[in-house]
Write a structure and sequence with these properties.
eleven-stranded parallel β-sheet; two-stranded parallel ribbon; 13 strands; elongated
């Protein structure tokens, strides 16, 4: 009803949409008011978001260069990439935890739009398909934060020279650390927090793998926060001693009685607990 009424108002100049009205397809309104300026809020919540609905954002003026989009039930890779491609957008949060994401073949046709993306900071909460992260390789994203899953999926991005900052939360960081060994230059900042299974003591084989990748990963500054067992803290600190790239280390959650021993080991870097 609201959409029908607005489509008949041919004198509109500016229309501000809240989170509910934003879900109305606004082609009819735009047709009746070709010069109307659409203004969207900075935070949205959808149960379902189609590619066509996501594309409507490109016609709208955001109140800032920041956007938070929560999708609760289902969406598609195309829809997510349309959000990445919003003109003028610099910071985007995608909350897609427990959301079903379909991979539509049309996403490959969005490469040019994504290539022109102004986005430099992306935070993904929940798992996204590998196709989504693969497509991001043509962007200029400098800071990526992934929470809950997506450790292996972001590996194709770690060799992007423009990527400078990476946060990994509640996901396995080992594939990413392995990828960082192949970078031409060192990543400026890596934060690992609450990594799954690091709170149980590693087997000898696991210790060997962690030591190998962490001692060679090209990182300037690393933060490891919580969820790590006593034995594993020792393994991590021993591996960092062998890393020639690391200049600054933050270890958060280390037991007090281990701190002095770790401090002695890491006496060549700036260390904070």
């Amino acid at each position: 009803v609201v959409s029908d009424c607005l489509s008949q108002c041919n004198h509109l100049q500016r229309l501000k949409l809240n989170s509910t009205l934003a879900q109305i397809h606004h082609d009819a309104i735009k047709s009746a008011n070709p010069n109307v300026e659409f203004v969207f809020p900075s935070r949205f919540s959808f149960d379902y978001l189609s590619a066509k609905e996501a594309q409507t954002f490109s016609d709208c003026k955001l109140p800032s260069n920041y956007l938070y989009v929560s999708i609760n039930k289902s969406t598609s890779v195309c829809a997510l990439l349309h959000l990445v491609a919003i003109k003028g957008l610099e910071q985007l949060v995608l909350s897609i935890y427990n959301c079903t994401i379909t991979v539509d073949s049309q996403y490959t046709q969005l490469e040019k739009a994504i290539q022109n993306s102004t986005l430099w900071w992306l935070h993904v909460i929940g798992g996204a398909p590998p196709e989504f992260f693969d497509a991001l390789q043509v962007t200029s994203i400098r800071s990526l934060n992934v929470n809950i899953a997506n450790g292996p999926e972001v590996v194709p991005l770690v060799n992007m020279t423009q990527l400078r900052v990476l946060w990994l939360g509640y996901t396995d960081p080992l594939p990413v650390l392995d990828g960082l060994c192949q970078r031409e230059d060192a990543l400026e900042y890596l934060k690992i927090y609450e990594p799954p299974n690091w709170d149980r003591d590693w087997t000898q084989e696991e210790r060997s793998v962690v030591t190998t990748v962490l001692s060679k990963a090209k990182i300037r500054e690393i933060v490891i926060r919580n969820g790590v067992s006593r034995s594993n803290w020792r393994t991590l600190s021993a591996a960092l001693v062998c890393n020639d790239h690391v200049r600054k280390v933050f270890l958060i959650g280390v037991p007090d009685d281990l701190k002095e021993d770790i401090r002695r080991k890491l006496d060549t870097v700036e260390l904070e607990f």
